[in-house]
Amino acid sequence: MKNKINYSLQLNFTILCILTILLSAFKGSSQNRINVSLDYNQSTRLQKKVYGYNDENLNKPYYSTNNTFKSVYNDLGKPTVRYPAGTGSNYLNIKTGFANNYVRGRMTPEDFQKHVIETNEGLRRNGKGENGQDWREFAKFVKSENPEVTYIINLSTMTLNENREVLQGIKNIGATINHFEIGNEVFFGSYETPFPSGTFYLRKAREASEMIKSIFPEAKVAVVLPAKFYTKESFLDGPAPIGNRLENWYEDVLSQDWYDALAVHLYAETGMESNVNPANYIPYETSYTYGISHNDNRLQSTFNRLKRDFPTKKIWLTEYHTGGFGGNLRQYKMRLSYLGGLFNANFMMKLFSNPQIELSSWHSFQQWLTFRSRRGELMPDNFEYEELVNYSFFKMFKDPVKNSTKFIKTEIENSKKYDGLGRFEGRYDEIDAGTFYNPNTKEGYTIIFNKKESAYTLSKSSFENNLDGEILEFKEITPDKNQNLLRAINDTSEDARLKKSISNINPNRGLYRLRPYSMYVVHYKREQNTNQSPELTILNPRNLETIIDPVSNVSLETGTIIEGNDIVINVAANDPDGIKEVRLYLNGELIRTDTEAPYGWGGASELQNVTEGSYRIKVVAINNTGQRTKKIIILTALPQSLRGVRFEKENTSAIMITPNPVSKGSSITIHQKGNLYLKLYDLTGKEIMKLDIDSNELDLDISKLSSGIYILKSDTATSKFIIQ
């Protein structure tokens, strides 16, 4: 009997544990259920040439005319090609087919000499013999496949006439090239011999540009811009130090205007210095977190900086990936791993959301397929290969890019936050999404990234309702399902580069499961209806200033309140088909849904007695056919010291600027008191003007100022404002 009782207790305990686990799993699933929403009226033109890669084949055992290479290229949907990609393009003399040293100036640095020797050995070792790299093979490929090409002009070891002969030869074969970069990262100190300064480089680059356009009149030309503004936080946020080659180079490029675009390279941090001892390499998931937090923290502000400094120029992001190309870090295989591919795919999706980025190149094609050959032989014309993870991630964009004409920023509700690492500490969304859409065919592709280790669910019916369509296919790429998750994402073996799981998935009980560290492409088709979106009018707050966000091209309503007050929102929503519901979001969180008019909010605790800061309010009206209209309000809660009468009477010095942000070409009002002087600066620290402080209320015409952030300083107070 005693044994029976113990058995019964043990069984009951086991059942209790199982129920607890199931309940916990159910609860976790509910807590991690996300919603995806988008506004078809807030789209930008899709820059298809962002779908591109580096063809770094200088000392690789194949030519572009190889049949297998061409079949792979066409299988990818003919992405943009960069040639001859990488550092070697600065010292490969394309006319002779071999790398050579500088033709004049001081002695070549040892590391540069090493690159030259290794390149020529590689050309011979991999079957290119005494002919070296043959540009005619690439010209034949361009003629037969008609790709978009970014071609790098070598001004380090080739003369202008040598470049002219090669380009004229390419044209004579019947090939056309429309994009040219003048050099590759030649702003670095190792290229001081051929390019002692940015001014010298720009003079040579302009001569090359004139030569290029005499052969290819429709071509665009890009000059190289240092990437330090992305990797060094101080450069982006403050004045440039004097005497630094990279900083001076940036200012030299900024001072001229004859070129068409900027060639920029962005490599995210790995979390390690280049001289790290290999025994101290950190796990891939840690290095990956350094990289994604670097991008989530700095990438958009980097593009905003470029747009502000070069408003009329396109950006060519001709190299990007995780870092680690110097010292011992060259042996760290993060960029070849599954997480390296996931990182870069997420990076590329962010590029599509910035229309200023005209083209980009994933680094690089040689990390995509298992190219194998015997020593001293070119690849056979047809050869077997396997697809590595970078290839698989890149190819996930093929259909979305080729079949779409618009890109729509897509919002994720209820995403958890992850903690950034290194210099980019902060809290960032675990889930990212973007939508590729064709308004003519009504078909779209929503790409979703689950960047971290949490699992999420997504309701099929809710998702289709938000998309206003029917899901046709839900495709995923995930870590190898045959391994433990941590092992799958930290595997450093050569074989690991092949391991990933790609499949179409179906909802379980109406829910799609989003696995950790995974990418999803959701192909859908909208219903063919002619219903219009509902009318949505903001009744309160009043006197809002309408601006256009330069990044998302979204219309924003901006205004101010005083801390301690309540936020009160009132809207009117109307539609012939009837209003189904009106939703209110605060800083991305859904806090209220109303199904009947009047639509007004102010009683929610989140809207009461607000503290100083910025509040993003989104109101979404949905009619009975599923059509949506969205309004976004940005309210800035100012400190109590700026409240009406107290602002006039208190002794505390203060500066208040309204409206803020402000539209370009308009004016601002500056409320100030208790200041001995008031000066206006731009972000570089340059003084723009000194203001008269005889009045507590100053009207300032800013129509001649360009878009950007400006600073008002007095002897005791500082205030910033933004011109959109």
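That was protein one. Protein two is written in the same sequence-then-structure order:
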Amino acid sequence: MLLDNLHHFRGPNASANATRENIVCRGQYLLFSAMSFSRSFLSEDQLLCSICLDVFDNPVSTPCGHSFCMACIGKYWDSAKHCQCPLCKQNFKRKPALHINRTLREITEQFKQMTSKTGSCKGVGRCRAVEEEGRPQESVDETERPGHLPGDRFTDMKRKFTSQNKTGPAQTVTTNADSADGTPSPVLTREVSMRRFTLSGAENAMNLPLCPKHHRNLELFCRSDLECICVECGQTEHKSHKITCAEKEWQSNKMKISIIDNEIQEMTKERLQKVGEIKQSLTEIKMLGEREKQRSMQFIGALISSIECSQAGLLEVIEINCCSAEHQAEVMIKELEQEITQLRKRSAALGKVAQIKDYNTGLKSYSDISMPLSMKDWAGVSLTSNLGTKAVYTSICQLLERFKEELQKLPAICLLVPLEQSPTKSLPKIKRIQEYAVDVTLDPNTAHPRLILSEDWKKVWCGERHHLVPNNRERFDRVVCVLGHEGFSSGRHYWEVEVGGKTDWDLGVATHSINRKGKITVSPSNGYWFLSLRDKNNYAFRTEHSTALPLSLKPQKIGVFVDYEKGQVSFYNVDAKVHIYTFMDKFSETIYPFFSPCTNKTGKNDAPLVITPVLF
């Protein structure tokens, strides 16, 4: 078909003297016209592998629908940690079994054969000799003179190709020596370019920067100087440097960027997972800590109860041993006194016999008292002082020493972190809660009319009747309670209250905006956080549904600790140094210490609540 067009272009009456150069020029023109026409239906970019940027070689398709050279995708997956599509980044759990796409391979092979027939052009997509602007827009006039381009077609083509070169596409049109008939022969020269061509022309052709020196497209990349250059720069200043196509270099770097970005995403994902694991571990440790606190209270309480029972048994044994020793001593003393009496009688009888002067009478009397007395040998007899408690005391001392040793090991086990793994160089000093002690006093303006406060505002108890006090808005008029004078809006604070001798009481904190008149619902949602005792033994933390706290040790003094920023309210048995309960919430306003000695129950609960100094 191409030859027919060439014959048509020459005309049926073409002169036999037409030069070979003119025939070649017209042949090239028709070839490029055919190339432009075929490119409108199929472009080389549609048959390029996005990894090697070349026409497919044994193309295969991934499950996501993208196609690559079999060797390229195989090498890509061998070098990557995970099997994923280089284009859409879809991950595959297993490496897909790829098979050659036979239809695409046939299309690619035919495309290669078609492009190989163009001579100097190596492919439709890479040959940039003819563009939309450079294609002739008019059909060939069969009446025109053979051997020449019709009209001023060549001049128009030269003008368009020259203009196109200045504005972006990497093609130039140069003119060789005139042909035999005087007509200049257009020779198309190709500069290195990897720009894509679409149905509308060169893609992004108008956006390519120009060389400031030669005013040509910066289509090359100098790897020695790491900058984009034009063709003339590559032939002059950068002649001895390593030069490659800028677009191809960028595509290669984009592949590297994709691989690096995948690695960064994987590293980020791993670290986010590790952060989640650490947070989860911290939550579990906190929950475990709370459970261990409760278990330690139960075990220590059971141990103390057992020790108290053992102490009672030991005292009983000691008392029995003492009574037995006393009885033994009384028996031995009685026997000794009897023998002493007999000896004294014999001594008196011997004295009388010694005074007899008549030997006949004396010998007779002596023979009556000379018989030996039946006496017990007391030389090896003694009252032992051993009550059998030494072994018990030894065992107790050994248990205490072992217990202390285990307690000393606990911090070393819990806080043992390798230096290379420790997020900080050194652990901060841990303060004891007693170091946050504050001087708390009672506010008489908030006290219920039945409450009686000491002069130093450190004690409070409930009286039998109401007192005449101003009915200000700060005062409680129904609940028998009083607030502390000092409020807290930040920081950590600790105080201790003596509760011994009482059957009922409430201790904790309350917000400034709580309701103080009439019936009050006490719960954290209403601004109250406190621990309660009812009927001597029933301890509870007051919530919507009170949280019962089974305490084996009855506290005589309660310590209250508040961390405002953390929203923490904790209670401790001061004498036993045992944690009782901790409640976590969020404070949004000033909070005050809360005290309620409860009603005196006709003298059964008349002991006061006493704010005591904190001892370190």
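The chain has a mean pLDDT of 76. Keep this in mind for the problem set.
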